[in-house]
Amino acid sequence: MTACLTQERLKIGLVSISDRASQGVYTDQGIPALQSWLSAALIAPFDLESRLIPDEQTVIEQTLIELVDQHGCHLVLTTGGTGPAKRDVTPDATLAVADREMPGFGEQMRQVSLHFVPTAILSRQVGVIRRQSLILNLPGQPKAIKETLEGVKDEQGKVLVRGIFSAVPYCLQLLSDIYIETHPEICESFRPKSARKEEIK
Ligand SMILES: Nc1ncnc2c1ncn2[C@@H]1O[C@H](COP(=O)(O)OP(=O)(O)OP(=O)(O)O)[C@@H](O)[C@H]1O
Ligand SMILES: Nc1nc2c(c(=O)[nH]1)N[C@H]1C(S)=C(S)[C@@H](COP(=O)(O)O)O[C@H]1N2
After folding, report:
1. Which residues fall in a coiled-coil region (predicted)?
2. Integer Rg of the chain from CA
3. How far is Cα 180 from Cα 120, in angstroms, rounded to an integer?
4. For the domain 11-176, what is the CATH code?
């Protein structure tokens, strides 16, 4: 852990992977759902690079490489194509461009999702690191975006199972020294005391 934080603005890549949405058979709901959740959760303004692409492994790989290597995204969220169907190849493409795996993200998403659908175990979603960037696969159902990022809450809003986004700010801090904060009523960020802003010059 370095003791210096960058003032850089957070850049996020959003990738909606859907044969039918990319062909115009239905309207893409993936990018709008990701965008609206992030706008509600993140305190500081951020920049977005969005792509809507078909379930083609080479296209997915090229898109992830472009977002990380050329655009310098700190975080890339994909939605769609994580299941067992023949054309569901998002995790395969993500692993193919990965430097390192972050298995906890896939494990936690399946845990969270089991509270919403018994078919949660059908998602092969992965989390990986490429260069300075964290890449996370979310399922294709638009409602799954909020579910996996935010977690399970009771009717009073008390968190029952943490969503994966709670761990994202600290992960990005470890990868590139960027410091992001979230609205706790949407999603509380966790970092060790020594990594909190007030402890770092
Ligand atoms: N981008 C999207 N916009 C709106 N709805 C979507 C989108 N992606 C997926 N869905 C919905 O979630 C379901 C499961 O997503 P999945 O990624 O498995 O898609 P699919 O069935 O392989 O089809 P396609 O790739 O053509 O979207 C879809 O059948 C569709 O109802
Ligand atoms: N939170 C959440 N996770 C979910 C779902 C969902 O509706 N909500 N759908 C499941 C289903 S039905 C499938 S097939 C897998 C893979 O979905 P994908 O191919 O759309 O990525 O995600 C699973 N995970």
Report:
1. none
2. 16
3. 29
4. 3.40.980.10
Tokens linked to 117: 């659908």
Residue 137 CB partners (closer than 8 Å, separation 6+): 78, 79, 82, 90, 91, 94, 106, 123, 125, 126, 127
**Are the CB atoms for 77 and 14 separated by under 8 Å?**
yes
Specify the residue with its C-alpha closest to ligand 1, atom 27: 18
CA 131 to chain centre: 16
Write the pLDDT tens digit of every residue in 14-57: 999 999 999 999 999 999 999 999 999 999 999 999 999 999 99
Mean pLDDT computed over 83-107: 98
Check residue 8 and give its pLDDT. 85
Closest atom, ligand 2, to C-alpha of 80:
21
**Pair of tokens at residue 59:** 């296209």
SS3 at position 3: coil
Task: Say whether pTM exceeds 0.90.
Answer: yes
Residue 19 CA to ligand 2 center (angstroms) comes to 16
73 lines ligand 2 (CB under 6 A): no
Nearest CA to ligand 1 atom 31: 141
Q: How large is the angle between the packed helices 142-150 and 103-114, nearest 10 degrees? A: 110
Residue 4 confidence (pLDDT) above 70: no
- Name the residue at shortest CA distance from atom 15 of ligand 1: 140
State the distance from the centre of ligand 2 to the C-alpha of 88, rounded, in angstroms. Answer: 11
